Amino acid sequence: MERIYSGKTKDVFLAEDGNLVLRFKDAVTGSEGAIDPGANEVIGEIAGKGWQSLRTTVYFFDLLKQAGLPTHYIDRGEKFGHGPDTIVVKRARSYNLEVICREKAWGSFVRRYGSYVVQGTPLPSLVEFTLKDDRRGDPLITEDAMIALGIAPAEAVRYMKNAARQATAIIRANLAQKGLELIDVKYEFGEVDGKTIIIDEISGDSMRVAKDGRVLLQTEFYAELFGDK
């Protein structure tokens, strides 16, 4: 297979049938030596973290599929003769955005709006859009700006906002059954066969989850999600 992209936490390969194969890495992101899924810098590796992200992504993609919310996920890679650390997905034209749905004020939201909110303040499934632009620090972008700049058409913007809230409600309810609280979650969207759908991954790399008021590390979240304690 041809590797067409190497990211911080995944490598992307083009399969012979035109689909993509995502291979998950053990790399972790953070800042100032502390692990932070929302950061843009790789600060090291944790053995087994790639497998945990893959298994979590499959779990949530299956959950959304059962609820009737489409994603680009097809199946586990090993079913197609690829490695056990891969999944197969439909090739999409990415909008190069991160769509963040916030259930509580945390992280960058508090840093931006600290004069108006304190950490932990409940938010009404508030949706924010940021550009995937590491050099500029993934800046916020308004819905009108996305449309004006041709990043995404108005219909796609509306769909992304609504789908992010729908997916978050599904994930939040599932985690609550396990005694876990969703703080925030980010999605990526792309266009497949003319339709806008959720792409990439949904894992500990893309959400904050708390238990008993404490935000869990990715490995802790994985253990809680699957009961591997």
Features:
Phosphorylase Kinase, domain 1, 34% strand, 229 residues, seven-stranded antiparallel β-sheet, alpha+beta, D-amino Acid Aminotransferase, Chain A, domain 1
Task: Tell me what you see in this structure.
It is a single chain. Helix content is 27%, strand content 34%. It has helices spanning 49-66, 108-113, 143-148, 154-176, 218-226, and strands at 2-6, 10-14, 20-24, 27-31, 34-35, 41-45, 73-76, 86-89, 93-94, 97-104, 122-131, 181-192, 195-199, 207-211, 214-215. Strands 9, 10, 11, 12, 13, 14 and 15 form a seven-stranded antiparallel sheet that branches. A five-stranded antiparallel sheet has the order 1-2-3-8-7. β14 and β15 (214-215) form a beta hairpin. α1 (49-66) crosses α5. The longest helix has 23 residues, at 154-176. The protein is globular. The mean pLDDT is 92.
